[in-house]
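[DERIVE STRUCTURE TOKENS]
===
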Amino acid sequence: MIISLPTKTLLAAVAISSSAAVLHAQRPDSGPPVRREFRGVWVASVANIDWPSRPGLSTWEQQEELLHVLNQSVALGLNAIVLQIRPAADALYPSPLEPWSEYLTGRQGVAPEPAWDPLSFAVEEAHRRGLELHAWFNPFRARHPTATSEPAATHVSRRRPELVLRYGRHLWLDPGLPAARRYSIGVISDVVRRYDLDGVQIDDYFYPYKERDSSGALLEFPDSVSWARYVGRGGALSRDDWRRGNVDAFVRDLYRAIKRTKPRVKFGVSPFGIWRPGHPATIQGFDPYEQIYADARKWLVEGWVDYFAPQLYWPIQPAAQSYPTLLAWWAQENVKRRHLWPGNFTSRVGAGDSTRRWMPTEILEQVRLTRSVPGATGNIHFSMKVFLENRDSIGTQLGRGAYAEPALVPATPWLDSIPPRRPTAAARMDTVTGGLTVRMLPSGKERIWRWIVRTRTNGTWATHVLPGWQRSHAVTFDDVAPQPDEILVTAVDRLGNESRVVRVRVPSRGGATPSAP
């Protein structure tokens, strides 16, 4: 059973977005451009960080919490949700391949009751609000230290134990086994095929971060069997290079599998924010190239991603891990001009002791700096909890400041560069409200993702970005804010291409007029 969002609640949420009009100086007849910026947030399910708030909630409570996440995202001015649906070879959706997650129901393999599909619900409700929904997968982790229930009979550690290794407090799919890589690609491809996703994202866990035993000694990842198999077949790489090659092959093959399954779905990776210490020269710290065998620069240079979200979880200063320095370096390496949407450690705002706590100004300045770097066109915030709690008013400050102006997700021309057909539109005088109602209809069969309605009054433009399911938009006016003298409508498709402009004739009282060419 799935509860429906009350119509008034949905319309109120949409109104938050559509009323976020921005005034512009007069522009040519095409109207002012809309800002292109990815404004995302990670919604983590592992250890119940963000959603659901705890395991074992009722179906209605889980849905209520998820709707609150979506509505708050709209109110904040975000345009994308990155929802974690596979934290540890489990599923927060009905899967034929993996068991239900214990972070949802409290026990792995136990379905929610009454039955519902959280991912289908999330996709539908996100789209109703004009939000993109990206499914976030952990590709190789098979058990997290916070897990308390026993693995279900359908878990990979029981169904295919030859693919799984125990490493410290974790269970891990062995990236050195082609069958393990194929297994995870199959899980992700199944979701891409069955759900109306906008994107797929994998995080920074490839080979695991190093663990230590009880005496403090580093533990070696126990992949001797797959390594010996590689050597026995004549492999000539060093063990470290072989491990990096396994991760490279996974990223490349996953990108290709997604494009075979549903070409328009964007694929993103969110790696550790440093490629290697010394790149650029002032950067110091952890080396994921050596420690977790992630050559993230290669994936970007090869174009095996549609978007790249390095976790730049450091402040602007000091120089050893400087947010703007790292961002500028990644932008320089982005030779295929893929989307560059860095991750921000927004949860540091209002958290921790005084030496670790960030002020909201740190994130506000990071967003401003991102906008100043050519090729960087958005941010993803970790994580939703900081916005739900509105720590130190960070959500309020972003929503009223940097995110007050509506924004479209940047277009992805290497996947689709053809704009939708110009829609039809008409305006009718509403004698009840004293305003105008603009009605929009698509031309052709292509799905409209967003509408843009621009109105000009006394030489000043206001821009409204609306969900594609809407077919009308109310334009109010009175003696203080007079009737607009120009109304323009465009349609935007799923990958961000904007149609030609429709100029809507403003009617005199008592009539409706069609769109003009």
